[in-house]
Structures are given as C-alpha cells and as structure tokens.
Request: fold
Amino acid sequence: MTATAVPSRLSIPASFVNYQVDLAYDEMFVSPGMPRDHYRTLQQTLLKLAPEELRRSQQAADLAFLHEGITFTVYGSKEGTERIFPNDLLPRIITSAEWARIEKGLTQRVTALNLFLRDIYHEGRILSDKIVPRELIYSCKHFRREMRGINVPRDIYVSICGTDLVRLPDGQFAVLEDNLRVPSGVSYMLANRKVLKRVFPTLFRDYGVWPVDHYPRALLTTLKSLSPDHCAYQNDPTTVLLTPGVSNSAYFEHTFLAQQMGIELVEGRDLLAHNNIVYMRTTAGLRRVDVIYRRVDDDFLDPLCFRPDSILGVPGLFNAYRAGNVTLANAIGTGVADDKAVYAYVPEIIKYYLNEDAILPNVPTYLMANESHRKQVLGNLDQMVVKAVGESGGYGMLIGPHSTAQQRVEFKARIMADPRNYIAQPTLALSCAPCLIDGSVESRHIDLRPYILMGEKVTLVPGGLTRVALRKGSLVVNSSQGGGSKDTWVLREPESGAQLLEEVRKELGSVAPDLVRELPRENRTA
Amino acid sequence: MRPPRNFYVPAFQREAGMLSRVADSLYWMGRYLERAEHTARLVNVELNLWLDQSPELGAGRWRFLLEALRAPEVAGPVDPTQLVNTLVFSRRNASSIVSCIAGARENLRHVREQCSSRMWEQLNRLYLGVVDRQPEEEWFLKSHDFFLFVLEGAYLFHGVTDATMSHGEGWQFIQLGRYVERADTLTTLLETHFKRMTRTFDGTVEGADYLEWVGLLRGCAALEAYCKRHTAEIRPMRVAECLLLNPDFPHSIRFAVDRINAALNLIGDLTERRAKLPTRIAGRLRAQLSFSQIEEIMAESVPAYLQSIRNECAEIHAAIHGIYFDYSIDAELAS
Reply:
C-alpha cells in the first residue's frame, strides 16, 4: 500500500517524485501531499530548490566533513581507513510538546536505572523482592562482581547515557535500548548542526530551534560534579578523557570532546597508578588525575583486574578507583543495566524505585530464557528481530522479514544453545523521514538518540543524533552497517524566542550609557 | 627575544606542564612540516636551475641535491624522473615531501584536541592535496604549481597556528621542532655547498659559479633579502655571513638557534625546569654564533664549523627528549 507523496501527477515537483508514504509513521506527511504543520516551511523551501542545487549543497557539506576530518574508522578494511559519517542535509524536526515528553521520560528512566545499579551492587533489595530475577543479573556478562560494596561519588553510576528511541506507527516514542556503557555519536550531533546552519541559515533562524552547542560545557560540569572527596580543589578537579587511541572508530569524537571541554586527551600509556593514586606524565613531571571520562570498555581498563592482555588500560587503576582516589565516568559495571534482557524489566524497575509508571514505554520484548516466550518466537522467527543481549552496534542480529531460511535455522540453533543470550522483539516499522538521495527527496527509516547527562542534576541537550538507514527499505541505522545521520531540530515555543531576545536586551541595556566610550575610527582632518 | 612574562601573573593558573606524549607529537609535527617545506623549496630551485645548464653538468648537480637532503644515495646513472619521485612522492623514503606531510598530519592527528580546528583543517587540506598522486613521466617539468601548493600550504599552516593557537607551551614545542629542523637542514645544505665550492671565496663570483651561489640563496628563500642588503653582487663571504650569522634573516642558522633558545627558555619557565640540560646547550650554541666572526670561520674551515653546529643540534634534540618526553618515572616519584 504505497502512494506518492504529492497528489496529482501533473504537479509533482522534481524533487519529490520518488517520495513514498507507507505504513510506518511518516515524520513529514500526515497523508500523501499533506505535510504536518511543523514540516510545512521545510517542504516549501525544498520545492523551491532544483535537484541540481540540492545535490551541490550535499557535496559541499560532504567536503566540509572530509576537510575537517569528521570521520570514523572502519574496522576490518584497509588499515586506518577513515570514512566520513554520511550526513543527510534535511533536518528532522521535533515539536516542543513532543520533546517535553521525551525529556521527562528519559530523566525518569536514567534516575531509576542509577538507583537500580546502586541497589544491585549493594543490598540487592530488588532481587530479594523478586522483581528482577537474581539469576538474570548474576548471569549477565557485564555484571562486575568487583564492584560489590564500592561507593561511587553521589551514587551515580551512569552519568553519560545515550538512549535509542524509535517512533511507533501510532506516533508514540518508545525506548529501543539504553546505552549505559560508553555511548558515542554526540560529536556528530554537533557537527551536523554546524554544517546545517551553514547550508540553511534562514530556514534555521525562521524555525526557532533550540541550540545544542553547550553540550561539551554541560558534560564538563557533570564530570566535575563527580570529583572524589579528597580533591583539594573540589570545584576544579583535574579531569581527563581516556581514549583507546587513534585507531578507535570514535577517535574523532574523543579529540573533539576533549578539545571542546579544554581537558587533556590521554591514552593508557600516559597514565600510571602509584600508591593508589593516578598520575599523568607531563613535561613538568607527574600530575595527579582526579576524574577520568573513560571511553575504554570495562574489560580493557586495568590489566591487573580485568583482561590481562589489555594494553589500553592502566595497571592499578581499579585499586585507585576502589580507594576513592579517582572517579571513572561512567562507573564500572553499568553494562548490566543495558543488557537487552534486563531491559525488559525497566518498566518494573521504574515502578519499584520511583513508584511511577514509565512515561516512555518499552518495545515488547520476549526473553528466550523464558520457555513460553521462546516457543512463541521460534514459531514466528520470520516476523521477529532477534538480538544478542550484550551486543551493540548492530552486530549479532537477525531481522526476520529480511532473513533467509538458512539464517533462521542458524539462529534457532544459537538460541537453543544459549537462550539467556538472546531476546526477540516484533519487527518494528521505524518512522520515516525525508532524506536527500542523489538530488531528490526520498523517505528512509530513522531513530533518535538523545544524550542524557546526570551529575548534580539531570541535563538533556534539546536534540540528539537522528540516525538514518540510508539503504532503501533497510531498518538498520548503525554507522557500521550503512547508516547515516541528520540534524535534529527541537522547536522552541513560538513565544520563547521573543522572550529570549527580551532577556538579552535587558542584559545589554544594563551598561549605563555614560560609561560607553568610543575609540575614534576615522581620521577626521579635513 | 623573550617577552617580559614576569609582568603577567595569571590569576587562575592551571597546573604546569602538558602531556609528554602530546609535546612529543607537536615537536615532531613541527619538524616534519619544516622538512617538507625545505625539500620542496630546494627541489623546485634545483629543477629550475637544471633547465639553465648543460646535461652533463646537470647530472652532477643531482648527486649534490641528494647529499644536501641526506637522501639515500643512488648507484649508477641518475634518472631525473625517478629521482624526483624519490624526493617528492616515495613513501619508502621517510623524508620525501609526501612522507613528511603525512608524518606531520599523523602526529597532529594524535593530538588533535591540542591544536585549533583551523590548524587541523589546513594541514589536512595540504595532506589531501598531495597524497595518492600518480605522477606521469616528466612530471617534474611542469611541477611548479605543486611545489607552490606545498610551500603555501606550509606558510598558511604556520600563519593559522600563530593566529589561532594560544602561544603557550604547546605552541613553543611546535616552534622548537620547526627550528631544530631548520638549523639542522640549513647546516647540512651549507656544508654540502661549501665542500663542493672549493674555489676561492674572496671577491665576487661570475659565470657558472654565479648560478650555484644564487641557487643556494634561493634554496634558502634568501635571494631577495640578500640583494636588498648587498645588491646583486654575489660574494661568498657575504652569503656565508647572511646564512650563518645574520640574526634577522629567518632562514639563517643564527636565527633558528635564537628561536630554539627562546622556546626552550619559555618551556623551562612554564615547566619550572629552567636550569635543565637542553636550555644550557642551546644557550651555549647561541653565544657561540653571536660572537663568531665570519672572517675567522672562513679562514679556518667552514665545513668543520658547520659540523660542530650539527653535533650541538643533535645534542639539543637528545636533551629535549630525555628531559621532557621520556624521563625516568622512578626518579620522578622519588623527588
């Protein structure tokens, strides 16, 4: 059941010829040819532009990404291959009402997940009360026994979180997965915005979009609010970003964030632990480190404690951490809460700790360890998406409707061999948004990853990374699997723009006029 | 040379010192880029002179060029196409222009958050403009635009660096690398030249020799500066004075050593390691150059004098490495 987006064949503008509205929720159109209110201006702008012009803008944007080196590294191909992360020029627009709900829902979720982590690494009340089965937690490969009984600053385990949201066919946002370990992609959110402001300046201004540029600042504030107690300058702890190094796929993001925050970007070999204190090696000798924003996985952090073959970590780091002399963000062992099987329990977790109903629903999830669930799923494998619980990045997945009989047989065997390791979800029709494909506008499936920061308070930058499945019909948005991204615009309330301007005026007006001296700028000798 | 830092005491001083690994990368970035610039200028001048000369004379010149750039020697007859490719494009030659630019970029890539975005963008642009080029036969006959692109790219990078990066410790390490490399490459070039031009250094030069001396000046971007000062009359003594001891001319050894000295003093202040070894060696070298007379040097042996400067440069490099980049952790923890 497909139809072109524009009603009459005669009036089809060149750029929309290939646009199709189908069963999934369409971000731009209510029905073919009828844009939603908040997309009308964008549509009108696009109608005025010739395909050639659109293509040129896209090329200019791609070149900007290449020159600025906004790239990611592709594993498994020629060594050190840098590729630009495909960017789609058309913005994804979210109304202020929709955003308000997302913001409330995510704040609730991350608050509850932090309480949950505190609980399972201490008393384990939720396990004794049999809300979450004990064996589910202890069998999770991201559960870190070493963390039992360790207190982390402010009891915050997850301070940086990137939750994946999808929009269901009824227009409601739902949570697809929580990324609580080392979520990435935020630099692309900022880069997309920078490029888009260059390409569509007037459109951007006329829309009244919340800025996102303060993210690095907010991240730094969050990190500093987690400084360990010993710290002589509680307000100015030495904060560093720990990267696995230049060959990591997200290396661009690490450099970008470190630069924007004005903190040192360190590798494991720059740090050393001595008497449970972490130092970095500088030209002026050794300097103590207080807070580490680590972009290295748990397994690789400390060869003495976790994987002994890791050369990315710092020997002795974990002991310094346990002694409370250094803060790691995120904490070790947060992966247990974004295990895809634990995910199924998050609504109950929210209810248990906050006594509230989840504002953002989960996607229906079947646990393969549960016998009745398993039977139901194995019978309908061609309609389900099956995922390994501990994987991310679109690896270890079976998408039923796009799979071959052979693949289904293989997955069935894998599920039977290790049911705890798999979950299944119905194949979702992710919502669609207009994308620029070779000069014309076509519809593609998208999701949304907002970034949540939790320190002294919870901060969400209005926006996020909208990921796009650039292959026609594809439902996989991961960058490693042919995905791209687009800028996400969260609209201000119509009156708030004027309000902001008024505030700025007031501030500027507070300088008394007789204090303003002007330096003469021209030579007036006649 | 040093600005009076004592007047300015920042209210919110961050702790001294930058990551050793970062300082190391910035230093090497400065060195590689300087070498790329130097090689581009020299090869360009050489190709230009080559057109003015008979084929037999030309073949001899190539060997000197290889020696002046300390490139691997070539056995048998020299094929210009192959030779230019070795000096310009070859990735096997770690000092070819493309290798140097790639090396500079790789170093900056490791410390991207330390430089301004514009710096990275400019170096990246330079790199993308020279990498993966497949030169055709006799490419070097129309290579002028290429060398211009490299030279302008390097100038632009340094301009952007000066304009957008804080002139703190990191900037000083870039300068340090740049001028250590300059002192070293200039010394090698002059040494080769003076070994070759064994005829008398008194009076003016004419004929074929004239082109050689002009070539040397142009290879140091110094011809115009020289003519402004001494007119187009080329006297070896004056050329030597200009390239060795002149404190104002940017491509003289004295100038480079002054800058090394200034950078080391500031780094010493910033890291509170003033009295350390590299500062001492550089200070000694600077004093030696500033109190030398060109007549004395010429009366003895110019190559020997240059050799001693090169040794000092190598010592400065080793001292920087041992004090700032790769010091003993145990000694540091004990102190």
Chain B touches chain A at residues 15-23, 109-114, 117, 120-121, 124-125, 128, 169, 267, 270-273, 324-325, 329, 332-333, 335 (CB under 8 Å).
